[in-house]
């Protein structure tokens, strides 16, 4: 059924009856037959009454649309289940078409009611979508062309609303890198270990009635002259800070070229190819850190929540992400993250990058545990590099990836960052992210170290990356 050219009043059968009525009227006039005139009026009234009934009687349909998985991944298929239920009985049939953005190709067309009712008695349909690019895509509404029970008239209506399909960027597998953990109370660097508390994780307190004798710390008891027991301190995940530069000027494609926008009817994100590479790098680094046992603190160049300009973020002000669920929230937020047009950047003529990488960022790093700092940046001026360089002093290790079109243009900024204690590389469009990541350090292997809290047979253990969606039971 072609919904763009289909008539909205009568079907071919209806037009045939109307034409027959005209012929009967002419015949009744020529022959002077009253019975032929009655037949002509009857033939003409049938399609007109059918069209009027469709206009006046609107079928009440409830549309429910679900996605599996709820958050899709770029390059991976998602199953869409469409359920339609009628709140009151009606006998019209309908040809229906799902409304889709242009990038998904031809929209699926189906017949209502379905030949085989669904488990709940309604009509259920399934189809598959795939997007190679991240985004927030409106799916729906359904365009329905209803016909009367005799197939004489038709009317085109919109049924239900639209639902957003979240397509998160897909993380890439990264080689093992010696990040270094946060500093302990004595200032020494510790690794991101997880598991049961060790001797370093315990303290002592006075014995209280009811404490088991096996927890008595005899050395402390002898030292204090009274019973002392072990008091285990909770083991917390080591923390890392991920900085994502979302400034428009840092990610403009080419030398001063304008940004591209996805076309009308699509997700319409303000982005660029440079920013797409930065988002891909950010989600890949985030997945790597979560697999390594780190909790994440996500910021932009102004030390603000990096997901503030994302329509898909569960919480736009969220800064901290922990575990698989935290990674899922972060990836969902990155799905519709846009560039910030209000922030100046390299080459803007505003001194010192318009406040980027300033005191707010340093203050934020000082207030946190000294874990690794990973910055995913675009073009960086020498002034901005000088502002960012001291941030390495507030992290156990500092790494920077600059997504640029011409790596040679990033050489001055890289030199300044490296002199300040950063390990920094420039990633060109055709450079493999894993190779850029490996270039940040010399201590890495091809596979991640085993995690005692995530054994290979765990449903969450996925070689090379951590999944966003729930595992199948």
The number of distinct helices, counting runs of at least 4 residues, comes to: 9
How does the major sheet shape up?
Answer: 6 strands, mixed
Tell me the overall shape.
elongated
How many beta-strand elements?
A: 20
Cα-to-Cα separation, first versus last residue: 40 Å
Quote the average pLDDT: 80
Which assembly state applies to the chains in this document? Answer: single chain
Which strand order do you get reading across the main beta sheet? Answer: 17-16-13-18-19-20
| Overall SS class | alpha/beta
Helix content: 10-25%
Unreliable segments of 5+ consecutive residues: 181-202, 255-265, 345-353, 442-473
Q: Please state the CA-atom Rg, rounded to the nearest Å.
A: 32 Å
Strand content: 15-25%
Order of helices and strands: HHEEEEEEEEEEEHEEEEHEEHHEHEHEH
Quickly describe the structure.
The chain is α/β, with parallel strands linked by helices and 473 residues long. It has helices at 12-31, 34-56, 218-224, 273-291, 323-335, 359-366, 382-388, 411-419, 433-439; strands at residues 61-68, 71-73, 78-86, 93-98, 109-112, 123-129, 135-139, 142-147, 154-159, 163-168, 202-206, 228-232, 239-244, 260-261, 270-271, 295-299, 320-321, 373-377, 398-403, 423-427.
What does this structure look like?
With 473 residues, the protein is an alpha/beta fold. Helix content is 24%, strand content 22%. The chain has helices spanning 12-31, 34-56, 218-224, 273-291, 323-335, 359-366, 382-388, 411-419, 433-439; strands at 61-68, 71-73, 78-86, 93-98, 109-112, 123-129, 135-139, 142-147, 154-159, 163-168, 202-206, 228-232, 239-244, 260-261, 270-271, 295-299, 320-321, 373-377, 398-403, 423-427. Strands 17-16-13-18-19-20 form a 6-stranded mixed β-sheet, with helices on both faces. Strand 18, helix 7 and strand 19 (398-403) form a beta-alpha-beta unit. Helix 1 (12-31) runs antiparallel to helix 2 (34-56), helix 4 packs antiparallel against helix 5 and helix 7 packs parallel to helix 8 (411-419). It is elongated, with a radius of gyration of 32 Å. It starts with 11 loop residues before the first helix and ends in a 34-residue tail after the last helix.
